[in-house]
Backbone:
């Protein structure tokens, strides 16, 4: 799976439409193998992004959990620390 796609469920505040769109765009780029489609494929590419973004939005609306919402800053800090440990660099402060 694409490493650039981040979890969007169970955060406070909830994922924005922009974040959902960016995840859908990254997914379509990954499966199509193209960052920027040709003019011939642009309509199909954009349609796929819209369709996946709508499906992701619908999914995020109906998912349920008993866990409390996660804090975005805390999750990002943990990811930076994990990356620093893995790659041997100092974490960049938020």
Residues:
């Amino acid at each position: 799976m694409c490493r650039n796609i981040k979890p969007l469920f169970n955060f406070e505040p909830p994922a924005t439409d922009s974040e959902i769109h960016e995840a859908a765009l990254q997914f379509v780029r990954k499966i199509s193998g193209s960052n920027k489609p040709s003019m011939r494929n642009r309509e199909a590419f954009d349609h796929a992004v819209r369709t996946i973004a709508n499906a992701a939005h619908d999914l995020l609306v109906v998912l349920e959990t008993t866990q409390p919402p996660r804090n975005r800053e805390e999750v990002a800090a943990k990811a930076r620390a994990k990356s620093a440990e893995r790659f041997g660099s100092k974490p960049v402060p938020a």
Observations:
- Strands lie at 11-12, 70-71.
- Residues 42-62 form the longest helix (21 residues).
- The chain has one domain: 11-87.
- The helical segments are 17-32, 42-62, 72-87.
